[in-house]
């Protein structure tokens, strides 16, 4: 048997799940050892390779994560917050690296990951692409260089099936801007403007979300002042950028001590 790390993909038939299956199988750096879907999914019992257009891989979609987690070195999870919390406990029991791409988790849900991180490596990021993680560093730097004469606005656009807003990426960029400014995002965040909102509050960091069609993911960080604007932009045109980042994280985590990490750690940025 190959000694390449065994990887389980949860939410394997989703938009990201299918891209992750292809990325892992075609990488030559890991083995696909499981594909998990929610109970009741029509995919249960079918070969995930066939479902993804790769031809049969001998990996059948299962709803019970336990057997496949037990033979895995990593679990890559782009599903939904409640599912991710369940997978975190089970991945920790199996001492498998848990790569979490799921967004829309509340602060309270994120705190619930702590017990699992005592026993296993958790790598979580609202965006796993190299480009966005680099953009967070640039955002922090620009925000630190400018004062509050520059209004910071994060504008994001995604496909019409996305269920959470602001996007995980927008929140990462907002956190980076707040950190650069030396403030807490909680104190200055302004999202969901509608109606008579009053004038913009100096120092706020604003968020706007567009949802439409098949947009993969686009983010602008705007620094708007009197007479000039600086715009930092990232456009993802293919989900493979997220999947490649997630696979990199799963491999990077193999020799790390239990704890919580992000893509800045993985990419060494
Ligand atoms: N971090 C990143 O780089 C990044 C990139 C893209 C998407 N995402 C996030 O990943 C998540 C999924 O996005 P998507 O576009 O693939 O969504 P999707 O709806 O296409 O796929 C989610 C899949 O998870 C499955 N699922 C839900 N609950 C489950 C459970 N309890 N057990 C097993 N499977 C379950 C669903 O059936 C579905 O197939 C979202 O939170 C999204 O924001 C993150
Ligand atoms: O398609 C999605 O959903 C995406 N989610 C992440 C986010 O919330 O930022 C990353 C981009 C795509």
From TrEMBL:
Pathway(s) served: Amino-acid biosynthesis; L-lysine biosynthesis via DAP pathway; (S)-tetrahydrodipicolinate from L-aspartate: step 4/4
Predominant location: cytoplasm
Species assigned in the record: Lentibacter algarum
Annotated binding of NADP(+), by residue: 38
Subcellular location(s) of the protein: Cytoplasm
NCBIfam families: dapB
Gene3D superfamilies: Dihydrodipicolinate Reductase, domain 2, NAD(P)-binding Rossmann-like Domain
Catalytic reactions on record: (S)-2,3,4,5-tetrahydrodipicolinate + NADP(+) + H2O = (2S,4S)-4-hydroxy-2,3,4,5-tetrahydrodipicolinate + NADPH + H(+); (S)-2,3,4,5-tetrahydrodipicolinate + NAD(+) + H2O = (2S,4S)-4-hydroxy-2,3,4,5-tetrahydrodipicolinate + NADH + H(+)
Span of domain Dihydrodipicolinate reductase N-terminal: 7-128
Keywords tagged on the record: Amino-acid biosynthesis, Cytoplasm, Diaminopimelate biosynthesis, Lysine biosynthesis, NAD, NADP, Oxidoreductase
Residues the record marks as active site: 158, 162
Family (UniProt): Belongs to the DapB family.
Residues where (S)-2,3,4,5-tetrahydrodipicolinate binds: 159, 168-169
PROSITE patterns reported for this sequence: DAPB
Protein name: 4-hydroxy-tetrahydrodipicolinate reductase
Record note on quaternary structure: Homotetramer.
Keyword Transmembrane: no
Biological role stated in the UniProt entry: Catalyzes the conversion of 4-hydroxy-tetrahydrodipicolinate (HTPA) to tetrahydrodipicolinate.
């Amino acid at each position: 048997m190959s000694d390449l790390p065994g990887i389980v993909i949860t939410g394997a038939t989703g938009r990201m799940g299918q891209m992750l299956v292809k990325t892992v199988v075609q990488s030559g750096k890991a083995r696909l050892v499981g594909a998990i879907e929610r109970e009741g999914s029509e995919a249960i019992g079918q070969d995930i390779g066939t479902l993804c257009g790769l031809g049969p891989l001998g990996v059948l979609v299962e709803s019970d994560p336990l057997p496949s987690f037990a033979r895995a070195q990593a679990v890559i999870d782009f599903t939904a917050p409640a599912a991710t919390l369940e997978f975190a406990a089970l991945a920790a029991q199996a001492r498998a690296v848990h790569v979490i791409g799921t967004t829309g988790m509340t602060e309270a849900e994120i705190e619930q990951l702590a017990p699992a991180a005592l026993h296993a490596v958790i790598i979580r990021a609202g965006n796993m692409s190299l480009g966005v993680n680099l953009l967070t560093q640039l955002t922090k730097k620009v925000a630190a260089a400018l004062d509050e004469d520059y209004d910071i606005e994060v504008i994001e656009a995604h496909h019409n099936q996305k269920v959470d807003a602001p996007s995980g990426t927008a929140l990462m960029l907002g956190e980076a801007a707040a950190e650069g400014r030396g403030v807490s995002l909680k104190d200055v965040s302004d999202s969901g403007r509608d109606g008579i909102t009053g004038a913009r509050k100096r120092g706020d960091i604003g968020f706007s979300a567009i949802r439409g069609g098949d947009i993969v993911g686009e983010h602008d960080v705007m620094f708007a002042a009197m007479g000039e604007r600086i715009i930092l932009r990232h456009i993802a045109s293919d989900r493979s950028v997220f999947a490649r980042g997630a696979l990199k994280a799963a491999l990077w985590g193999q020799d790390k001590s239990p704890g919580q990490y992000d893509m800045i750690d993985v990419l060494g940025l």
